[in-house]
Design a protein that fits this description.
The complex is a heterodimer of chains A (394) and B (325). Chain A is an alpha/beta fold. Chain A is built from 13 helices and seven strands. Chain A has one domain: Thiamin diphosphate (ThDP)-binding fold, Pyr/PP domains (Rossmann fold, 3-Layer(aba) Sandwich). In chain A, strand 2, helix 6 and strand 3 form a beta-alpha-beta unit. Chain B folds into two domains: 179 residues, Thiamin diphosphate (ThDP)-binding fold, Pyr/PP domains (Rossmann fold, 3-Layer(aba) Sandwich), CATH 3.40.50.970; 130 residues, Rossmann fold. In chain B, helix 4 links the parallel strand 4 and strand 5. In chain B, helix 1 runs parallel beside helix 6. Classes of the chains: A alpha/beta (394), B alpha/beta (325). The structure holds thiamine diphosphate.
């Protein structure tokens, strides 16, 4: 789908909002107002923004700590992030957790991450599988750093997603550094995307600093997932231009590398594109920047107005005591999954025929060979062809 | 009332919940075609279909992770560990993702993680463990360890309906050894309630899972041989702990013995003793005592495992010491 002029400008707005919000947070950090560490996505804004922009409202994301842009596109306000980082009562977690560790199941469809890298991958697989079970064509998207992709749970999650053809898009942000660890100590493979082959899914490499390209490949992956064709691993090549967090001067990163990637800044690059393609005017640009400026001032004021939480809140909320409604939202008739089952299952599309046979009541062998419900017709055809060839050989 | 084994009762409970609520789905290794390593879910796949009974790769983190995602959509996933020992592989998902979810961001995780635990079957160090205390120590989880068949059925129903994550530890020694009348129909045993399984006035034994039967055997013998009447409490749920029932019994007997198959240090007995010190010190006529497994891994060879595990003799000896105190 071609982006309209308006959408081009929206992408720009989100990237700039992402960056300027982080500038604001950096200022707060210098004023000692941030509780704990502060993480930057400088130079990676195109990935957070474009991947989320490629989703529909009904789709799900689970951000990692550097995906500020993603939660903004998903509908959170800058004040939410400011309050998270300053541990305020008004933050989405009410001060129970910080940084990008928040979410909303009901409206925004954002799943909160935990610090342990990789755990979101099977969780988002479950979101995708669960949505499909309920008859909803929703896609789950999450991110992982190239460092986080070395965890065992990355493998378990992506493999399970592939086996079940879960509607999952996994965006691997290869920013060349995991804290102080360079990629050659993380993998012996040439590209992280090459791993996709081992899972039997597409692995796509994209220039992570090209917002339009990131948008394009994500859209394809999302469409594929929505069609029921399973997950895609997208490796977005980029660079982490700050230290791991504010405390880290990143002396281990060579200067030449930093210079090289500064020149590839995704926002500058996109500005050039917008100008060359005459998608905006200087005046239009200034309007966007002024809008962000005003917004952030208001957002900061709102965040600062929020008090710190009442201490006794610490003791509350360990269990759900009925405070949250738990209800599955069906988009197909639940009768389809109640026994006796006589409706072909969409969930099972394309899976192992042996399982499908075991799963349906035994039937008499028909005269002519037919394809079992839920079996993979292509595979069966191939098997038939093989047995025919074997017969001929004999 | 039909007579069911502990295993059948759990299967029946799961079955009825699947019938009742299409939001209940199952996932685990070999639970479908094969019916589970212990056959708890035998027949489920052909009855409920492959959309609701998912055979998974050998990926405990993916099983728990996917169950989390499903539960966020209001589904009620029940995940099986082939042996509860493999719960260690998903420790991070359970203690960090599942347990903290509601507290951190108000997202309930209504899932059930179940599997066979416990020793006495010569399963060796990796197929005999009782890892409940790792999770009893984790705020946000509920931990259930049924001993009776009827209780097991009623508790699995309660676990599935609970808005919180529930770890359901099935003692494999009991699977086919325990047979009892199990009420038909929708009988739910609430979580967090202990049950007095034998009344007595001289001392209280607090226990759970397979050790219930060890305690009942010891109590019977003590009654016959010594005229010592022991009250036996089956905790059923370890977290949240039913302190009232324990303290209520202690008020009557003034002496308390905790018996568990889990190892000693950091076991539930220590916690119960601390609760009593804080809340009922005045009631005690003797120190709280405990009979537990040794502080070692679960050994394989039968004489070693027998030495390792509590048994009726060890319980009787402790009870006599306590009575004499
Ligand atoms: C399982 C796990 N181990 C260690 C850490 C500590 N840690 C946090 S971020 C990080 C580096 C992550 O690198 P990468 O995944 O490449 O993401 P990036 O920081 O580059 O965005 C480490 C080691 C963690 N959060 N989770």
């Amino acid at each position: 789908m071609e982006l309209t002029k308006q959408q081009h400008l929206e992408l720009y707005y989100w990237m700039q909002l992402n960056r300027k919000l982080e500038d604001l947070l950096t200022n707060l950090f210098r004023q000692n107002k941030i509780v704990g560490g502060l993480y930057s996505s400088l130079g990676q804004e195109a990935i957070s923004v474009a991947t989320t922009y490629a989703l529909e409202k009904r789709d799900w994301i689970a951000p990692m700590i550097r995906n500020l842009g993603a939660v903004l596109v998903k509908g959170y306000q800058p004040r939410d992030l400011i309050m998270q980082y300053t541990a305020k009562a008004g933050s989405p977690t009410g001060g129970k957790d910080g940084t990008a560790h928040f979410g909303d199941l009901k409206q925004k469809r954002v799943i909160s991450p935990i610090s342990m890298l990789g755990d979101l991958i099977p969780v988002m697989t479950g979101i995708g599988l669960g949505a499909r079970y309920l008859g909803r064509e929703e896609v789950a998207l999450t991110w992982i750093g190239e460092g986080g992709s070395s965890t065992g749970v990355f493998h378990e999650g992506l493999n399970f997603a592939a086996v079940r053809k879960a509607p999952l898009v996994l965006v691997l942000e290869n920013n060349l550094w995991a804290y102080s660890t360079p990629i050659y100590l993380q993998t012996a493979a040439k590209h992280f995307a090459d791993r996709a082959k081992g899972y039997g899914i597409p692995g796509v490499i994209v220039d992570g600093n090209d917002v339009l390209e990131v948008y394009r490949v994500t859209q394809e992956a999302v469409a594929r997932a929505r069609r029921g064709d399973g997950p895609t691993l997208i490796e977005a090549k980029t660079f982490r231009r700050k230290g791991h967090a504010q405390h880290d001067p990143a002396k281990y990163v060579p200067q030449w590398m930093l210079k090289e990637w500064e020149a590839k800044d995704p926002i500058l690059r996109y500005e050039k594109h917008l100008t060359e393609k005459k998608l905006w005017t200087e005046k239009g640009k200034q309007e966007i920047l002024a809008r962000i400026d005003t917004e952030l001032k208001q957002e900061l004021a709102a965040a600062e107005a929020s008090p710190l939480p009442q201490p006794e809140v610490a003791a509350q909320g360990v269990y759900c005591d009925g405070c949250h409604e738990i209800r599955a939202e069906w988009k197909r008739s639940p009768d389809e999954v109640k026994p006796p089952r006589n409706i072909p299952s969409k969930w099972f599309k394309g899976r192992d025929p042996a399982l499908a046979v075991a799963a349906i009541p035994p039937v008499a062998k028909p005269e002519k060979e037919t394809v079992m419900v839920g079996a993979n017709p292509r595979r069966e055809k191939k098997q038939r062809k093989q047995t025919k060839q074997e017969r001929q050989r004999k | 009332m039909p007579t069911l084994t502990y295993l059948q009762a759990i299967g029946r409970g799961l079955w009825e919940e699947m019938e009742r609520d299409p939001a209940v789905v199952m996932l685990g290794e070999d639970i479908g075609v094969y019916g589970g390593a212990f056959k708890v879910t035998e027949g489920f796949l052909s009855h409920f279909g492959p959309e609701r009974v998912l055979d998974t790769p050998i990926s405990e983190n993916a099983i728990v992770g996917a169950a989390i995602g499903m539960s966020y959509l209001g589904l009620r996933p029940v995940a099986e560990f082939q042996f509860i020992d493999f719960i260690a592989c998903a420790f991070n998902q359970i203690t960090n993702f599942v347990a903290k979810s509601h507290y951190r961001w108000g997202a309930p995780v209504p899932l059930v993680l179940r599997g066979p635990c416990g020793g006495g079957v010569h399963g060796g160090p990796f197929h005999s463990q009782n890892p409940e205390m790792y999770f009893v120590h984790t705020p946000g989880l509920k931990v259930v360890c049924p001993a009776g068949a009827a209780d097991a059925k009623g508790l699995i129903k309660a676990a599935i309906r609970d808005p919180n994550p529930v770890l359901f530890f099935e003692h494999k020694f009991l699977y086919r050894r325990i047979k009892e009348e199990v009420p038909d129909g929708d009988v739910v045993v609430p979580l967090g309630q202990a049950a007095v399984k034998r009344e007595g006035k001289h001392l209280t034994m607090v226990t759970y899972a397979a050790m219930l039967y060890t305690c009942l055997e010891a109590a019977e013998k003590l009654s016959q041989q010594d005229g010592l009447e022991c009250e036996v409490i089956d905790l059923r749920t370890l977290l949240p702990l039913d302190k009232e029932t324990i303290l209520g019994s202690l008020k009557r007997t003034n002496k308390l013995l905790v018996v568990h198959e889990d190892t000693r240090t950091g076991g539930l007995a220590g916690e119960i003793a601390a609760v009593i010190m804080e809340e009922a010190f005045e009631e005690l006529d003797a120190p709280v005592m405990r009979v537990t497994s040794l502080d070692t891994p679960v050994p394989y060879s039968p004489p070693l495992e027998e030495y390792f595990l509590p048994n009726a003799e060890k319980v009787m000896k402790a009870a006599r010491d306590l009575a004499r105190y």
